[in-house]
Amino acid sequence: MMGSSTKALKQFLAEHDVMILGIIAAAIAILFPFFFGAPILIVILGSFIWLDRKQFKQTIAELGWVGIFIVYSLIVSAINRNLIGVLATVAVALIALFFVYYRRKLNAELYVLLLKIFCWGSIPLAIMALYQYLNYAYTHGYDMFYIFKYHNIQTRAEATFFNANYYGLYCVFAITIAIYLFKRSNFKHTKLMSLLVFLLNTVSIILTASRWLLPTIVVAIVWLVFFLNRKYALIAMVVSAVGLVLLLFNPEILPRLTTLAYAFEDRFIIWDTGWRIFLTNPLIGRGAMSYVNYYYLFVDEGKMHAHQLLIDTLANFGLYGLMLICVSFSGYLRETLSVINDRTIRSEIGLITSFIVIVLFHGLMDMAIFWLQTGFIFLVVILVPISILRKVAEIEI
Length: 397
Prior knowledge:
The chain has helices at residues 2-15, 18-29, 34-51, 56-62, 64-79, 83-105, 108-120, 122-139, 146-149, 164-184, 188-208, 213-228, 230-249, 260-280, 290-294, 309-338, 346-362, 372-382, 386-394. The chain has 19 helices and no strands. The chain has one domain (17-394). The chain is mainly α.
């Protein structure tokens, strides 16, 4: 019995690309809590490195400027005795290695499958988030409208993510993919699933009570619709503007909007602290995760980060580090911008650039992209070669 099972396993592995199976498994695992998904991801990456052991030096070389930035981050973190920064940089290095293998093995069918995993996988997470919210509300003597009635709410939707803002960013990603799949697919079941994803994740975004997610999803939808069908982009902008006016005059419609002024006041304090940390070493920074290590120099209350993409990057890596990051991604950006008006892959370019816009816009107020789950999903979607995008545009989804 054991012998036949081993033989069947060997035959299965011989007939299938182990790395592709590993990439699919990693995409599924990343939707589980990080303490479950992260070990699986490490095991998968370890298997990739073992399979690639004969040409691993070449794999390291493929990291290019990203590899140089990783070394820079390690050195800066070590100089500043920033142990958390060293560990965070090691994690980034492992993720970077994973995506070298990802780009090697990626094909059009795999890319579409991964999009569907992230999109449709949001359905059980949305149901989980709704259950968690209702369970809290009813067990604490409230009704289902608890989140709308009270300013100091004690529960926010997180599902399998560590934080409501992280989960909310994932919901925005899922909605964006759903709109893309709805437009591209000719299959009724795909369109119905995409609609369900849109509705459930809209509810989840409301349940996260994250104020900045609402303008983020509006910007994402308008941007993507502009690429999918320009004549509808104007309609989306008008509807968004009307919705914004309604919210300005009726902030109680959505959770925590009535306390928006306090939220900005809190953010200004955090940004100021992050900026002052940057000024302590403006050229090279204090290493990754510098805010959580050096906030005490200026304020009493600690945060994990500066809640602003540029300020946090400057505090962590300084001006030299920021330049290294720009150089690392300059080739990718040039390649993407060179085909931004290519009509044959317009929908696919719209999806990728929407993800970039989402991260940049959301990064004005938060750092939710620097979490294993959200960062992984973001990189899977955007790190696709143009040659693969052309094939994606040709296949049935």
